[in-house]
Here is the input.
Amino acid sequence: MRALDLIRKKRDSAELSSEEIHFLISGYTRAEIPDYQMAAWLMATWIRGMGRAERAALTEAMLHSGQILDLSSIPGRKVDKHSTGGVGDKTSLILAPIVAAGGLTVPMISGRGLGHTGGTLDKLECIPGFNVNLNLEEFIRVLRECGMGLIGQTTEIAPADKKIYALRDATSTVENIGLICASIMSKKLAEGIDALVLDVKTGSGAFMKSEEDSVRLAEVMVETGERMGKKMVALITDMNQPLGRMAGHANEVIECIDVLNGGGPADLRELSLELSAWMFYLGERTKSVDEGRKLSAEIIATGKAREKFKQGIRLQGGDERVVENPALLPKATSHVDVTSSAAGFITAIDCEALGKALATLGGGREKKEDSIDHAVGLEFHKRIGDRVEKEGSLATIHYNSGTKLAEAKARIAGSYQIGEAAPREKLPLIRRILGA
Here is the structure.
């Protein structure tokens, strides 16, 4: 086989066989196929789409490009959560300590920022000393000791996805159901988990803008996980506006600490409790989701979740003092408000534009080798339905370099739609639940 022929085949809308996909993925993993050819195949796939057999073959090829974790030496059920990403989406840092403190094991193999969305690993790395690059032996030791571990893909776990993930981000080939499914499920199935809770975003800040597409993605991932013998559920959740009040890295960590201390924004608390409740239920820790919600709230109220987060930070080499003293996290040198040009009510928000503005300021990547400024962030003051006065503050930019500040301000200001009346219908945070 030749990569050139497979690129042409997909370009011309033909379906690749399982053998052809395995050839392509294994060749790219071994660096026998160069970036530019894989980028061409990704773009052809993004344009032409993938059939069910192709999706299954791609997930299988990426899963078996590396090692599948054996966590049988750790007693109890292993459960994880994955979000398809959005602006201000930070629940992993809240769920892992809640669920681990509740007695389950949470092996989280996460990714970096992708497109306009932030990445769990990038958030964790703003904690001084925190090591997301544990090898598998160290990862299992941390899991055994505290019940939670958050790392990136190692050379052993789904190495094909690690390479392709970065390439998709840099070639604008993110928003494709087959590529998203294979990326997520290859990592998660390699973790050795018993159950997986999916948070599939929908709306202006999600990769899947329409609820119909989000549901289709959720169905594909649930089907893939169930076929591999895992307990699965997918929550379709709203991303027409940022989750919580913060986007960025250091300030999102601070917001997570607020929730673990019993505070934080209402929407972030609600979603965190709901997702952790489903993790408890699928992990057979509770007999119902409602019981899981009560257990999650109790674990936060007693301080057990906060202490578990500190333990997890310490075991991965980080400075656990940040939980008591968030001032130890990176802090931007300057800030400026973005104000409204008119009085009225916020009727809609282009959430993706907010994520792109953050990336423009250094809080995201435009090329796969770009570094992140962890101190850069956005603080949101108005949500859909809120009243705003002329010259009233919509958001605050926290920044270090003013080089692209004017561009970011214009993009943020333009992302808010203002009308004379508030929207009549308030969309729920959790739209639908599939599986389970």
Q: What stands out?
A: The chain has three domains: 3-49, 79-326, 331-419.
